[in-house]
Amino acid sequence: MPWIQLKINTTGAQAEQLGDALIESGAVSVTFQDTHDTPVFEPLPGETRLWGDTDVIGLYDAETEMPDVIAQLEQEPLLGAGFRHKIEQLEDKDWEREWMDNFHPMQFGKRLWICPSWRDIPDPNAVNVMLDPGLAFGTGTHPTTSLCLQWLDGLDLVGKTVIDFGCGSGILAIAALKLGAAQAIGIDIDPQAIQASRDNAQRNGVSERLALYLPKDQPNDLSADVVVANILAGPLRELAPLISTLPKAGGHLGLSGILASQAENVAAAYTDLFELDPTVEKEEWCRITGIKR
């Protein structure tokens, strides 16, 4: 069954009370982790960490409307408006622990392979993206990432500009560049994701063609031939007016992070401006694609 994780940093003294708040907001389970053993929020270069020593992790059904959860939690005196948090789709396994033994090169579409650096490349003549584990979401193991990679592999990206909205590890932007895109732009709300994308781009020799932005820093006139957004259904609906402006006329749009049961509602937010393709499903998740009118 698919799940969503919400991670919040706090102190040990407040963790239990915050855990109760997560349960009241709809979490089916809550766990606590020592921040020093399993860092979730890493300080930026030169930054001193001033927040707590415990990460509280709530597990929610993937159909949960996370914006509603966040709005409810913002009413908690312990948190307040704009509290620091991280929302992500839960990978099928804890690949950060099992990666070395269980992760092998994976093929997506006809040309594209995602390969860990310690494995031999199956096909030196293929398009190979080298990706090692990190804290940012996006390894290719989750069905939503797989659906996006397969879609990118099927496009003619030569000379095109691609925007990866919610770039995470940078896997989609990097794959697009190695598939022939002239330029890629990654956008993410998490500084840690920006750093992970930058590191992975350098590892793959494409960093000079990848621009990375936090939303507050991105140019106002961004546009691209291809836009891919692998986030969650709620944000895809809420941000539809913004995301819809990013593809050029005749440009391609790919959306994922959506359960099959959520596809109709998400598609409805884009149908006025895009000629949408039939929805593609994989393991309860789906991908919506289309061309801008």
UniProtKB/TrEMBL annotation:
**Per its UniProt record, what CDD domains does this chain match?**
AdoMet_MTases (cd02440)
What biological-process terms (Gene Ontology) are attached?
methylation
The root-end lineage is: Bacteria, Pseudomonadati, Pseudomonadota, Gammaproteobacteria, Enterobacterales
Q: Which InterPro entries match?
A: Ribosomal_L11_MeTrfase_PrmA, Ribosomal_PrmA_MeTrfase, SAM-dependent_MTases_sf
E.C. code: 2.1.1.-
* Residues holding S-adenosyl-L-methionine: T145, G166, D188, N230
Q: Name one Pfam family in it.
A: PrmA
- The answer on whether this UniProt entry bears the keyword Ribosomal protein reads yes
Q: Which Gene3D superfamilies match?
A: Vaccinia Virus protein VP39 (3.40.50.150)
Q: Which GO terms describe its molecular function?
A: methyltransferase activity
Entry keywords, A to Z: Cytoplasm, Methyltransferase, Ribonucleoprotein, Ribosomal protein, S-adenosyl-L-methionine, Transferase
Give a Gene Ontology cellular component term annotated to this protein: ribosome
- The source organism is Symbiopectobacterium purcellii
* Function per UniProt: Methylates ribosomal protein L11.
Q: What is its main location?
A: cytoplasm
Its family? Answer: Belongs to the methyltransferase superfamily. PrmA family.
Q: Which gene encodes it?
A: prmA
Reactions catalysed, semicolon-separated, are: L-lysyl-[protein] + 3 S-adenosyl-L-methionine = N(6),N(6),N(6)-trimethyl-L-lysyl-[protein] + 3 S-adenosyl-L-homocysteine + 3 H(+)
- State the protein's name: Ribosomal protein L11 methyltransferase
Q: Which top-level enzyme class is recorded in the Swiss-Prot or TrEMBL entry?
A: transferase
Keyword Cytoplasm set for record: yes
